[in-house]
Please model this.
Amino acid sequence: MHDALVIALTSPILVGIYKDGDLVEEIRSEGMSSDVLAELFDSLLQRYTFSTLIYAKGPGSFMGIKVTYLFLKTLSITKKIPLLATDAFFFNQNSPIKAVGKLYFVKNRTTIELEPLVSPEVMAFTLPKKIDLKKFDSDNLPYYGIDAVG
Model:
């Protein structure tokens, strides 16, 4: 059994396949999650049996978060695979995440806030070499961080 971890907040989309907590395959795919995820998982499901699905639930690209959540939640329900999540800061060394304009999401201990920043050091998202499922949460609802503009 394997675990799949998806980070689809920016391009490239990252998918990590883990066995006993160790990264055994890393997939990087350019494009939008709506175009990429179904194709990737069609291939992955032919090669692996998953015991857990994990994703970065935000903040980040609103559409990337939404599509990823809907895709993985559907897969979770239909295949009866638990879906876990954590915030995106887990995958970028807790650096600011671009929101809109000069606004960035920052994590201060346990809260995520929106702050205006000038020239912040933004780190790319990366897949960890090892994962511990205890660091992920069954509260897998997306975190968008910004309300819809009306």
Observations:
- DSSP finds two helices and eight strands in the chain.
